[in-house]
Amino acid sequence: MEFEKKMCFMVENQIVRRGIVDEGVIQAMLTVKRHLFVEEAMAESAYGDFPLPIGDGQTISQPYMVAVMTEKLKLGKESRVLEIGTGSGYQTAILAEICERVYSIERIAMLERKARKRLEEMGYTNIAFKIGDGTLGWSEAAPFDGILITAGSPKVPDLLFSQLKEEGRMIIPIGNSFSQTLTVVRKVKGKKVEESFFGCTFVPLIGREGWEED
Ligand code: SAM
């Protein structure tokens, strides 16, 4: 099957059929070519219903997970969003299709360089990149309408929460290093209001306010 057909099939069967309704998210997932974010040898599997390895023990998240995390942030054309864990840059591209500006931090320099090159070659001009510990956030660009954390954390990192706007939303997998619960944290009158969704498994968020490196 051609990639275009695989992408439409993925959106219909994995995204829309499972209840994603945000038109911005659906359109972004019909626009960003996921097979360009994995090694050529894995391109045929890029639209499958699973995560794939991207090197250095890290993964590109399952398409449905990307869609559901993005939808729960309730973003729009004027949103400014912070992403922790650039990885392949696929989730970054989805955010860049929807939002005014995306700030993305990755701790592994090799992944950041590859993602940055890929996204710049694709013509995105609304993404700022940084190599470093994302649990410390990006204070110069704060506050953000949304913060999306693509790695599993033991808790809500305080510094990241402080960089969220009033009424802003953070999405974060919280739990131990083997399994987490997808959690939305809203800032209401300066306080955390948490809502838990379903179980998930992400690579660990490693940093000062995450897990220690082995
Ligand atoms: N969203 C990515 C994509 O579409 O390819 C998938 C990201 S992968 C599941 C999680 C990423 O978080 C990994 O690339 C990992 O190196 C990164 N990461 C883990 N801890 C981090 C931290 N403290 N700061 C920045 N990145 C971190």
In short:
The chain contains six helices and nine strands. With 214 residues, the chain is of the alpha/beta class. The longest helix is centred in the N-terminal third of the chain and has 14 residues, at 3-16.
Plain-language structure description:
- This protein has six helices and nine strands, in the order ααββαβαβαββαβββ.
- The chain has 214 residues and is of the alpha/beta class.
- The strands form two sheets. A seven-stranded mixed sheet has the order 5-4-3-6-7-8-9. The protein has a two-stranded antiparallel sheet with strand order 1-2.
- Helix 2 (23-31) crosses helix 4 (90-98).
- It starts with a helix and ends in a 14-residue tail after the last strand.
- S-adenosylmethionine (SAM) binds at residues 54, 58-61, 84-85, 87-88, 90-91, 105-108, 111, 133-135, 150-151, 202-203, 205-207, 210.
Any idea what the CATH architecture is? 3-Layer(aba) Sandwich
Query: Count the helices. How many?
Result: 6
Task: Give the biggest sheet.
Answer: 7 strands, mixed
Overall, the morphology is: globular
- Identify the quaternary structure here: single chain
Hetero ligands: S-adenosylmethionine
Properties at a glance:
214 residues, alpha/beta, Rossmann fold, 7-stranded mixed sheet, two-stranded antiparallel ribbon, 28% strand, binds S-adenosylmethionine
SSE arrangement:
Layout lengths: L2 H14 L6 H9 L20 E4 L2 E3 L2 H10 L7 E5 L5 H9 L2 E6 L2 H13 L5 E5 L12 E6 L8 H5 L1 E12 L4 E9 L2 E10 L14
The structure holds S-adenosylmethionine.
